[in-house]
Amino acid sequence: MANVVGEGAAGRSTRTLRAEGALSALAADSHATDRLRRVLEQALVFAGAAFAGFYTLGEDGELLCLAETAGVPRTLCGVRDCYSATGRSPVAEAHRGRTVWLGPRDLAAQSQSRRTPRREFHLAALPVRHDGGGCLLAVSERPGGFDADDRVCLALVADAVALPAPPVTAEGADLPPGGFSLAVDTGRLRVHDDVLDLFGRDPDDFDGRVETLLGLAVPEDLPSLMSVVEADHMTIGDRELEFRVLQPAGPPRWLRLRGRLEHGGEGRPARLVGTVADASSLRADVTDVARVQRLAAALSTAVTVRDVGKAVVAALRRPLRADRIALAELESDRLVVTVLDPPEPEAWPEVWRSEWRTEWPDAPVRTMPTLAAALREGRPATWPAGSPLEPALAEVGPGGLAVLPLPAGNRMAGACLIGWDAPHDIGADERTLLTAAANLAGQALTRARALDAEHELVGMLQRQLLPRRLPRLPGAVAVARYLPSTAGLELGGDWYDVIPLPDHHVALVIGDVQGHSAGAATLMGQMRTALRAYAVEGHPPDVVVSHANRLLVDLETDLFATCCYVDVDMEAGSAWCVRAGHLPPVLRHPDGRTEIAEAEGGPPLGVVRQCDFPMSPLRLQPGTLVALTTDGLVESPDSDIDTGMERFARQVAAADPADLGPVADALLGKALRSDDVALLLMRYDGMDTRPLRESWTVWRVPQAVGHARRFTRRTLRSWGVTEEIDAPLLAVSELVTNALVHTDGQVRLDLTLIGDRLRLAVADASPRSPVRPTSIGWEATGGRGILLVEAVSASWGTLPVSGGKQVWAEFSVRR
């Protein structure tokens, strides 16, 4: 590099020469262990970058992973840890040898998983030409991006990154015995070799990923271990934790972690540094008594029958080294199996598989006399290898079988079957463990069964308060999901609704009543009914929500409700959104860009009697996905609601809106379920055929009916309808006459043509609907108008509108 400085200095700027000198000095420093980071820092100094990172090909050859960074945290720039090497990202393009320069508009067009950033970025991706390939990624926040000198300096940095790193003796050689250093931003881990020995890993096979060692931890200890490792849950300071790691043979090994989270300095991520030591000598071997205590603790928090079965399997299978365990409820004369471990059908006898009705087998007890006898005796029974048993039991444990009746008071709640493939002698200690576990599991199973039944009843009542099915929409598809809370068995207050409105409008409603009780569920049903009634009356969205608010205040309840109401015009592709203390909609546009709608909001319903609920406009292009949800899906004890909404928006962006059912299921798949959850999705496709519309204000003059008929005739001719118009004209005469004679105020005639379907509608200021007479005498001079409309039209009816009603009739016409 020094030669380059000398030969080309005449044609280079001062800044370029200084960059060459700095990079040359770094290349000559053979003792620098952090040379790569220091090289990347030159992109910040000489090219004005806010972030610089180096991506290199991973061991699998499929991903380009972030190896080192400098500058601001990558999350501020929307940069990911890894990119597919065969994808179309700027990182992948640079790895394949093409230099990429992108401005804010280019980045916005490529954005698929986040809202439009508040700041504008310029991005540069340059190939790094060394044996493994790679990419230099730089991000600038300056308005003009990278100028000519900046680009020359970035090319110099990319060349410097490609130089071989100075040799080191071994990974982690600069760490003390038992030491480790974890970059919390990337998850890259440097450890001393003796730490890998504690985990039972060969240093030559360790890939430097913290997830590799976390995968060896006992699952029960993983949450507490993740709370130390995850950056989002940490603050600067000391850490100490004891946890267990699995061993190829024998009990798990106890390890003790001591560490401290430290700032990495300006532009560098925080690091967790410390030591890991063997703590097994400080703990006695886990006894059967301890296992029983752990089982009792697990069963005390088990809510469902499946939870009970999983707790029993976790407590018995590994200590007993069993090959299969089944836990079943006893219902009348049938053994209904709720948990199988392993769950694969091939691991169980053929006779059991022949009885499978759905996901789990269902076997009559009478087909297994040995099992029936053990249940009658009510004591654990065991059979060694080779015992003469019916095939349904012998194949469960060819090397030995144990049957644990699960007593609950004066009855049997179920049974637990434990089988071994290799010959296994059940010792006295194992019998004691089985007896204690059976008594605990039987009581827990009875309690969980009652809770399951109650929870099913609660869920059934909740579902009865929600729509049974969603209507078919013109130019759109909608799906909805509701999940009750698993934290308790009270009724929830979340609801959703889809309301078809006149003139191809659709109202999307989602809301949440405060609390979890029968009162909250009852109020939820009232609010859903009220919003639907006000919407069908023809009020605008803000009036609908305002009326619902006054109704809730008048109910004099201590509860309040939140609501989001979106009125969508299917013809125009526009919408009005009204929020009453609820989450805004998330919009996924056809190009994949996702945004959280910036809709103004009013207070929750039932808090203030007189308040404003502003309407915010939304624009929907064909293919736009509208997602509405309640806070149970986005809020958790570990993250606030804003973070949850950002995560929800990313999940919506990653979804394929072609089939909304799987999308809704996937969005609910990771819900924490500490609260009930409602989700409403609508994909706006646009109407294939736009209706033709015309309106006429009927003035109260002597020739008003004649004017209305002439307007109708001219309009139909302009639409190409020239035949079979006598019936529509007769209906116009009768409907307009009725409105003028029997009502006061303004009268309006609306004509709508969709395909070959003509709709006439006459609106007036009277809420009283016309009554179809049951009989008319020969001498009567009126009352035949509605009978004539009914006779000449395909269908007719009335519907309320704001401040009055609308009488309509439909006809089939040819254009």
Please tell me what the overall shape is.
flat
Q: Kindly estimate the percentage of residues that lie in beta strands according to DSSP.
A: 25-35%
Helix coverage percent: 25-40%
Q: Whole-number average pLDDT?
A: 80
Strand order of the largest sheet: 3-2-1-6-5-4
Tally of DSSP helical segments:
23
Please state the CA-atom Rg, rounded to the nearest Å: 36 Å
The biggest beta sheet reads: 6 strands, antiparallel
Number of strands: 33
Q: Determine the structural class based on helices, strands and strand pairing.
A: alpha+beta
Our measurement of the CA-to-CA distance between the termini, rounded to an integer number of angstroms, reads 81 Å
Low-confidence stretches: 1-10, 112-118, 166-172, 231-237, 282-287, 354-360
InterPro entries: Bact_Sigma-Reg, GAF, GAF-like_dom_sf, HATPase_C_sf, HATPase_dom, PAS, PAS-assoc_C, PAS-like_dom_sf
Organism: Streptomyces althioticus subsp. attaecolombicae
Keywords: Hydrolase
Domain PAC: 239-291
